[in-house]
Amino acid sequence: MSSPNDSLAGLRKSYERAELDETASASDPLKQFERWLTEAIDAKVPEPNAMTLATVAGDLRPSTRIVLIKGYDARGIVWFTNYQSRKGQELAGNPFAALQFHWVELERVVRIEGRVEKVDGAESDAYFASRPLDSRIGAWASPQSEVIEGRQVLVKNAAVIAAKHLLSPPRPPHWGGYRLVPDRWEFWQGRASRLHDRLRYRLQDGAWLRERLAP
């Protein structure tokens, strides 16, 4: 029986859906991101709001995980999580991170780099209150990234929290939002013959400089 490894080298895809030209792209990377995110949502790609978050620990080991974008504006990109998780601990020691969106069906990737800060408590409170009840209970029940004996630990914790707070669990003090403040963006559009389009935006003297990168 053959293994997946036998066919990996032969896997090929020709990227021919679209192009990304300097004259057609926005001068502001946030506007370009909004355009592509809107198109991903309209195209009904699976989880267009999912993004990979990369952080680096004090021992310089990088780690990645998938989180969900919950907002964006001129200040940056926002998501919410447990501050005591591995990513939270790594951000506390090194407040720089990278985000990546991969919209496979559109043959597009967006990469964003910058400094990360916590959002203010009022913003975290407002988002937490909008979450489904089971998600609010789960934020209390899960000691995220810690070793546990089994799933029964989570189930027991959730039952205790549900009994204690009923329908109104408050936001845990260890849970809230982060905002990545971009200083670099990159937009990648797959093209034929592996001659992909890559446009990078980077801050220079307070303004965005747009550059084409070789694929």
Automatic annotation (TrEMBL):
Keywords: Flavoprotein, FMN, Oxidoreductase, Pyridoxine biosynthesis. SUPFAM superfamilies: FMN-binding split barrel (SSF50475). Binds 1 FMN per subunit. Residues 175-215 form the Pyridoxine 5'-phosphate oxidase dimerisation C-terminal domain. FMN binds at residues 65-70, 80-81, 86-87, 144-145, 188, 198. Pathway: Cofactor metabolism; pyridoxal 5'-phosphate salvage; pyridoxal 5'-phosphate from pyridoxine 5'-phosphate: step 1/1; Cofactor metabolism; pyridoxal 5'-phosphate salvage; pyridoxal 5'-phosphate from pyridoxamine 5'-phosphate: step 1/1. It holds the Pfam family PNP_phzG_C. PROSITE patterns: PYRIDOX_OXIDASE (PS01064). InterPro entries: Pyridox_Oxase, Pyridox_Oxase_CS, Pyridox_Oxase_N, Pyridoxamine_oxidase_dimer_C, Split_barrel_FMN-bd. Catalyzes the oxidation of either pyridoxine 5'-phosphate (PNP) or pyridoxamine 5'-phosphate (PMP) into pyridoxal 5'-phosphate (PLP). Belongs to the pyridoxamine 5'-phosphate oxidase family. Homodimer. This is Pyridoxine/pyridoxamine 5'-phosphate oxidase. It comes from Variovorax rhizosphaerae. The gene is pdxH.
